[in-house]
Write a structure and sequence with these properties.
Number of helices: 3
Distance between the termini: 5 Å
Largest sheet: 5 strands, antiparallel
Helix content: 10-25%
CATH architecture: Roll
Strand order of the largest sheet: 1-3-4-5-2
CATH superfamily: Hotdog Thioesterase
Low-confidence stretches: none
Strand content: 35-45%
CATH topology: Thiol Ester Dehydrase, Chain A
Number of strands: 5
Shape: elongated
Structural class: alpha+beta
Mean pLDDT: 93
Length: about 130
């Protein structure tokens, strides 16, 4: 199992007229956590791209439990517990202190620059195995 967490402070522009974080911003925070996870295992996304590997989102889902507001300090946790030969499934939790605000899931596939599904690079598989 791979895991990472990041802190984000809610910016004013991320909120709607009601002062609540606009729902699409959670997906941006998920991406921030995913990038941190890849960095933490020594497999930065930028390096994957430079070597011709991409991880587009195939599906995403968010469940909102409590609203986040401007200037909240949040912790976004990502866990990759399951990956097949070409897909990665990531689970997310968003906390304000110990309060769970949202959960989510994304599924990604490794693809080439031409958009064809490919196996992950050996370096990713080795580092993911070492880090679990």
């Amino acid at each position: 199992m791979l895991t990472a967490s990041v802190e984000v402070r809610v910016r004013y522009g991320e909120t709607d007229k009601m002062g609540i974080v606009y729902h699409a911003n959670y997906l941006t925070w998920f991406e921030i956590a995913r990038i941190e996870l890849l960095d933490s295992i020594g497999c930065p996304y930028k390096s994957l791209e430079e070597n011709g590997f991409f991880l587009p989102v195939l599906s995403c889902q968010v469940t909102f439990r409590r609203p986040a507001h401007f200037d909240d300090l949040l912790r976004v946790v990502v866990v990759i517990d399951e990956s097949s030969s070409v897909r990665i499934k990531a689970d997310y939790e968003v906390f304000r202190d110990d309060e769970l605000l949202a959960t989510g899931k994304t599924t990604h596939a490794f693809v080439s620059g031409e958009g064809k599904v490919v196996r992950p690079p050996r370096s990713f598989l080795e580092r993911a195995k070492q880090s679990s």
